[in-house]
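Annotated sample (chain length 475).
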Amino acid sequence: MLDIALRSVHKQQVVCHTECSISAMTQLGEAIARYHKLLENEPFRNSGWTTQLRDQMGARRLIINGRPVSPVLRPHFLSRRQYTNLARLAETLGSAIERIRTMALSTPALLHRMELLPAEKMLASVDPGYPYPAVASLFDTQVNNGSVYFTDCRTDLPTGIVFGEVLSDLYFDTPVVKEFRKKYKLEKVSASKPLISAMLKAYKEFGGGKHPNIAIIEFKQPFQTEDTQEFLLLVELFRKHGYNAEIVSADQLEYRNGVLKRGDYNIDLVYRGVRAKEFLLRFDLNHPLVRAYRERKVCVVNSFRSELTRKMALFDLLTDDTITASFPQAEKKAIRESIPWTRLVTSSKTSYKDETVDLPEFILQNRERLVLRPNELSSEQQSFAGAYTDESSWERAVKLALRQPYVVQERLESHPIPFPVDFYGDIVMRDLNVDVHPHEFLGKVHGVSSRISSADASRFSTISGYAPTYILESK
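Output written by the structure step:
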């Protein structure tokens, strides 16, 4: 019975439940087919417009180490219904996550299950000076027809906000998208202004003045990275809206006389571009940023409390019915339908589908339907997908997961989507996976970005990055 239940849990519902949703899915399919048809005909099948697009990316800081941030030549489209459903689910799950976070901070047993370092627990206990545990959040989701699955949540360093917005602007006026827009209405889903508004609201609640000096705190990298490039775009964005902004390396900070600074630049508001665990591997709790934060002399967005959601064990707590029993029905429904069953890997018994199982034995027996993931999302530890791992390697992975903080999670079936890719001047079709990232600010979703990657997990591929995202409707 248990095996049958596990086989059935991953069969995502591709049949839409209303005529409206069926129509929306048909519309998306027809729109994608039309876009691809345009690329087969002149003048769009020649590489002239793609060369121009790449030049524009270079001018907008969207080429990193010789690779464009977006390697695809078609935007990712969402129907109005998909976007609305995605936003509603993200906001509902965001509320549930805040409940879990509040419970964990006040319940040592729950906090222990999240496998935080002692210093991370200390930082999480500090009141950031404003009432929002997460000012800006990002959810990783898989959207397939009428279903949505959430694979993780990031509220310490939401990325893709500015990349997605700049890409949407660039693609909107390319020749092929202009032609496509003669039949379809495309709506941009930007998030940069809501980000700024949310940061300033948190700063006001913190007790700050009208025009803070903003610092994006990062680690100095020996080479160009996506994070650093997006930080440069964020600085441009803040300055465009009239705020002083600088990128500051964590090792450049000083804290004297109640002021956090880098040289002569006094810092009032920090956009935290460093993850707590990585920070604590390099610095101790006497670092200037930590002292200013603890003494409430600088406003940090997101606060160190948001680190709790970087732990995959969060999904362990969310999918544990004994913990969420008192949650509102809407939140329990969203968890049940959108989050894969997850457990922290320990030598213990646990529940699955109302049955009690020995967890290590269960993992070994259901290899092809499970994945093992490090508890720390920023960790360099390897993830293991049972479907692509032989039996002996899986046994070794389970032993590793019992020694180090890992979670086991139900594997979601991928649903690759065909995208045209610029392959050395030729337009070729590739099946790619798409993770859609709704961006949530102070509990409300404003905009999404789409991350694409190769659908072939068995071999290395350089095809990864972002696709511009639009809400699509017929005219």
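Annotation: Confidence is low (pLDDT under 50) at residues 1-22.
Annotation: The first strand starts at residue 63 and ends at 64.
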